[in-house]
Amino acid sequence: TEDFSRDEFSTHYGNIQIGVEEGLTPLYTMVSNLDDRDRYETLKWYAVDEFARNNPDDPVLPEIQARNAKAQEIFLRWGRELFGWAIYLLRIQV
């Protein structure tokens, strides 16, 4: 989003190298694909919709819905293609 800059992120290779420079041994990585990202993001949309249906009088509901709408727009415009996630398993060297 607008709160981040490119220099705060690294590549997949760069992330592993950060671990190596810290003295860790890389053992495994798992990188998200488009289906993973869609599932992760849209489950949040579903959760907000369910919360709204079950709590229509909640005083913070309009704020929650507004944040969700903005998150949807960001994901659909840019996030799906530009952002992802990965899990890294690294071990302390002995």
Describe the model.
With 94 residues, the chain is an alpha+beta fold. 56% of the residues lie in helices and 16% in strands. The protein has helices at residues 12-21, 34-54, 61-82; strands spanning 24-31, 86-92. The chain has a two-stranded antiparallel sheet. The radius of gyration is 18 Å and the shape is elongated. The model has no long low-confidence stretch (mean pLDDT 92). It has one domain (6-92).
Summarize the topology.
Blueprint: H1 12-21, E1 24-31, H2 34-54, H3 61-82, E2 86-92
Antiparallel strand pairs: 1-2
Helix pairs in contact: 2-3
Please give the alpha-carbon distance between the first and last residues: 40 Å
CA-based shape: elongated
Let me know the average pLDDT.
Answer: 92
In angstroms, what is the radius of gyration? 18 Å
- Which range does the strand content fall in? 15-25%
Output the strand order for the largest sheet: 1-2
Helicity level: 55-70%
Largest sheet: number of strands, sense, barrel closure? 2 strands, antiparallel
Order of helices and strands: HEHHE
Q: Number of helical segments? A: 3
Give the domain tally. Answer: 1
Uncertain stretches:
none
Q: Return the structural class.
A: alpha+beta
Number of strands: 2
